[in-house]
Amino acid sequence: MNQETLRQLLYRVARGEISPEEALKELVFLPFEDLGFARLDHHRGIRKHFPEVIYGPGKRVEELLVLVDSYLEKGIPLLVTRIPEEAVEPLLKKFPQLEYYERARLLGHRPREEEGRGLVAVVSGGTADWPVVEEARVCAEYFGNRVEVFTDVGIAGLHRLVPELRRLAKARVLIVVAGMEGALPSLVAGLVDRPVIAVPTSTGYGANFSGLAPLLAMLNSCAPGVAVVNIDNGFGAAYLASLINQLPEERDGEDS
Predict the structure, then answer these.
(1) Which residue, among 229, 242, 100, 102, has the nearest Cα to 177 in the 3D structure?
(2) How many other CB atoms are there within 10 angstroms of residue 35's CB atom?
(3) What burial class does residue 218 get, using C-beta atoms within 10 Å of its C-beta: 0-12 exposed, 13-18 middle, 19+ buried?
(4) In this predicted model, what pLDDT tens digit does every residue of 130-155 receive, in sequence order?
(5) Which site from 116, 131, 162, 255 is most exposed, i.e. has the minimal number of CB atoms within 10 Å?
(6) What is the DSSP code string of 99-140?
(7) For residue 63, what are the domain limits?
């Protein structure tokens, strides 16, 4: 259930196409469905613009099968992040309509129609960051955004970034992914007048401290306009970028 689905349901009741009792049957699982081991938040798409996303780690294969079945049965757009490798084959066998993105470690079904007001640019410091870049890209696309990826434009060779600045300036929001010392978001934010969502990655040698070094560097950025998500959190960056790109400045019925 999301805002548009609920709106259409109410229109159908108003037009007399279905009875209030029939509409009630479609709303019976609000605000959540108790599966015993999990409580699915079917109300989240109304409250938060996007439906609940399933986080894969820690869940047994049989639990994921139940969760996915519940989403698909109700027509809820499905996205499973960090899917355990052993769960992929059983899920694809039972639900062949799912799409699997191996490098991003994502399973998805029925992405939203494109509704963003502009481009979400995903900028990568190096090819070693591809798993996080792909997670950000796929999630942003599933949330209904037009996405373009700019890869391997890290600060070790600024001449690779400069030719892309005009295209980056056309984006509504930028997700900048970097490991090692994590300086790329500061550089980009100093050159482009768009919000920058910085994603530190665990890519790097020992003093990278599995992503802590770039995380601290990004949090201490001297360039204004930088927000930072957690280490390797491409999903979180895509979610925030989608809200920036899609939510209207004023909502109907709210005072300005």
Answers:
(1) 229
(2) 12
(3) buried
(4) 999 999 999 999 998 999 999 988 88
(5) 255
(6) EEETTTTEEEESPPPP--SSEEEEEES-GGGHHHHHHHHHHH
(7) 30-109
Do residues 140 and 238 share a domain? yes
Identity of the amino acid at 164? E
The reply to whether 16 falls in a domain is: no
Distance from chain centroid for Cα 163: 27
Per the DSSP assignment, residues forming a β-bridge with 119 are: 146
Model confidence pLDDT, tens digit, residues 94-117: 999 999 999 999 998 877 777 778
pTM (two decimals): 0.82
pLDDT value at 250 more than 70: no
- 134 with 43, same domain: the answer is no
CA geometry: angle 29, 53, 130, nearest 5 deg = 170
Q: Quick one: 81 and 154 in the same domain? A: no
Residue where a domain terminates, one of 109, 132, 166: 109
Q: What domain count does the chain have?
A: 2
Average pLDDT of span 78-99? 92
Segment (H or E) for 178: strand 173-178
Q: Which residues contact 81 (CB under 8 A, 6 or more apart)?
A: 53, 54, 55, 56, 105, 106, 135, 139, 235
